[in-house]
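Project outcomes to date are best conveyed with an example. Our students and postdoctoral researchers have been running inverse folding experiments weekly, and each run begins with a structure described purely in tokens. The record below, which covers 100 residues, was selected by the lab manager from last quarter's runs and is presented without edits.
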């Protein structure tokens, strides 16, 4: 637990230093409109947040597709399993034809 806390604090200090040193660096950004003199840090943060949102939606879509394909394969396996069980039943001691 303390290792995670120390790592998080170090990471926050590095992000703060990066932000502080790059506040004066500015650029123009075009996104259906030209935004002039946008700090580079803001551009990086918006790009990061957009990437996280796209990755979240992508993982949710992949997870729902996996769940659908697993349920379909389980349904198919269930049908095949029932067919196998009918044709290859193993006699038990309660069966009258059992010769154990």
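After processing, the design step wrote out the following sequence:
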């Amino acid at each position: 637990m303390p290792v995670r806390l120390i790592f998080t604090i170090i990471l926050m200090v590095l992000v703060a230093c990066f932000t502080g040193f790059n506040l004066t660096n500015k650029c123009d950004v075009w996104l259906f409109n030209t935004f002039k003199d946008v700090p580079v840090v803001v551009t990086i943060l918006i790009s990061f947040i957009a990437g996280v949102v796209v990755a979240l939606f992508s993982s949710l879509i992949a997870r729902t597709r996996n769940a659908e394909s697993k349920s379909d394969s389980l349904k198919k396996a269930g049908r095949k399993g029932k067919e196998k069980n009918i044709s290859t039943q193993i006699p038990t001691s309660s069966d009258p034809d059992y010769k154990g």
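The mean pLDDT is 81. DSSP finds two helices and two strands in the chain. The training component of this project remains on track.
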